[in-house]
C-alpha cells in the first residue's frame, strides 16, 4: 500500500475544514464553563476527521462513477478531485471500501461520545453529518449535484461541527453556539464555492448543478464577494450583540487577505490558473479567521 497515494486520496491539506471548527467549538465551551476535557476533545477530533475522510473518499468514488472527474480536463490542486482513480494509483473499489470503513469508525467514536454525553444530541448531529457526507455525491440524493451543495458543506463543516464539539465539552447547547458558528460555515462554503469555478465546464457537461453552473461565473463571483462581506459583518454583529467578546474583532486583521481574494477573483473569475491565488486566499481566510477567533477567546478568558 502506497501511503503517499492514500494521503493524496484523502486530501490531508483540506483537513483544516474539520480542525478549525472542532477546536473553535471546544474553546468556546472552555470559555463558557471553564473546563476542558482533553480525552473528549481528541475523540471528537478523531471522529470528525474520520467522517471527513469518508466524505472525501466517497466524493472521489462517486464523482468517478458519474464521470464528473473524468470530464474535468483542467484539474487544479483545489478542484477536480484527488485524481488517484483517474491516474490509476488506487482502484475505485478500494476507495469505496476505505470510505465505508472510515465512516463506520467515525460513527463508532460518535456513538461513544453520545453515550458519554447523553440526550442523543451527538447522535442527531452525527447522523446529519454522515448523511451529508455520504450522500453529497451518492445516489439517490447527490446533494452536491444540485443547488444545495454549498449549503450542505457550510452546515456540515460549520454549525454541525462547532455545535458537536461544544456539546461534548459543555453538555449544553444554547442557540448562541449556532449563531457564532455561522462565519465558520460561510467561510468553508466559500472555499467550496471558489473551487467550483475551475470545474464549471466539466460540471455543466455532466449535469452537475452547482451554484456556479446555475448562475454563471460572472454572477457567481458577485455572490462570492457578497458572502465574503457578510462573513465580516456577521463577526462584527456577533460582537455588537455580545455573543462574542470585543477582542474577537482582531479577526478583522485578516481583511488584507480578503481584499486579495476579492481583487483576484474579480479580475480572473473566468480564468482557471490565474484564479488560484483567490482559491488559496479563501482557504487561508477560513483557517486564519478561525485561529484568530480561538486566540481571542483564550485571551478573553485569561485576562
Write a compact overview of the structure shown.
This protein has 303 residues and is an all-alpha fold.
Protein architecture, described:
The chain is mostly helical and 303 residues long. The protein is built from 14 helices and no strands. It has helices at residues 3-10, 16-33, 38-65, 68-71, 92-117, 121-134, 149-156, 159-170, 175-195, 200-205, 211-215, 217-240, 255-268, 276-302. Helix 2 runs antiparallel to helix 3. The longest helix has 28 residues, at 38-65. The radius of gyration is 19 Å and the shape is globular. The N and C termini lie far apart (50 Å). The model has no long low-confidence stretch (mean pLDDT 96).
* Rg value: 19 Å
Shape: globular
Mean pLDDT: 96
- What class do helices, strands and sheet pairing give? mainly alpha
> How many runs of DSSP E, i.e. beta strands?
0
Strand content: under 5%
Can you summarize the main beta sheet?
A: none
Count of individual helical segments: 14
Point out poorly predicted stretches. none
Measure the end-to-end span: 50 Å
Amino acid at each position: 500500500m502506497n501511503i503517499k497515494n492514500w494521503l493524496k486520496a484523502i486530501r490531508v491539506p483540506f483537513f483544516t475544514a474539520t480542525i478549525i471548527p472542532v477546536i473553535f467549538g471546544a474553546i468556546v465551551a472552555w470559555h463558557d464553563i471553564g473546563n476542558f476535557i482533553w480525552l473528549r476533545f481528541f475523540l471528537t477530533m478523531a471522529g470528525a476527521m474520520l467522517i471527513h475522510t469518508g466524505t472525501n473518499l466517497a466524493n472521489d468514488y462517486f464523482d468517478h462513477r458519474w464521470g464528473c472527474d473524468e470530464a474535468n480536463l483542467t484539474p487544479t490542486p483545489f478542484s477536480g478531485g484527488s485524481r488517484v482513480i483517474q491516474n490509476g494509483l488506487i482502484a475505485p473499489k478500494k476507495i469505496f471500501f476505505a470510505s465505508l470503513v472510515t465512516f463506520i469508525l467515525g460513527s463508532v467514536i460518535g456513538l461513544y461520545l453520545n453515550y458519554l454525553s447523553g440526550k442523543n444530541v451527538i447522535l442527531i448531529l452525527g447522523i446529519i453529518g454522515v448523511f451529508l457526507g455520504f450522500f453529497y455525491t451518492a445516489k439517490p440524493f447527490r446533494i452536491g449535484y444540485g443547488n444545495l451543495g454549498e449549503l450542505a458543506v457550510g452546515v456540515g463543516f460549520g454549525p454541525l461541527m462547532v455545535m458537536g464539539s461544544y456539546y461534548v465539552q459543555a453538555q449544553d447547547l444554547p442557540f448562541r453556539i449556532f449563531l457564532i458558528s455561522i462565519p465558520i460555515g460561510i467561510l468553508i462554503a466559500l472555499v467550496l464555492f471558489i473551487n467550483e469555478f475551475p470545474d464549471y465546464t466539466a460540471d455543466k457537461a455532466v449535469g452537475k448543478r452547482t451554484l456556479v453552473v446555475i448562475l454563471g461565473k460572472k454572477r457567481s463571483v458577485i455572490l462570492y464577494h457578497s458572502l465574503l462581506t457578510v462573513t465580516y459583518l456577521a463577526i462584527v454583529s456577533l460582537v455588537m450583540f455580545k455573543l462574542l467578546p470585543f477582542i474577537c474583532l482582531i479577526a478583522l486583521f485578516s481583511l488584507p487577505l480578503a481584499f486579495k481574494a476579492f481583487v483576484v477573483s474579480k479580475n480572473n473569475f473566468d480564468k482557471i490558473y490565474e484564479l488560484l491565488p483567490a482559491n488559496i486566499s479563501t482557504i487561508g481566510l477560513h483557517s486564519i479567521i478561525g485561529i484568530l477567533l480561538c486566540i481571542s477567546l483564550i485571551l478573553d478568558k485569561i485576562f
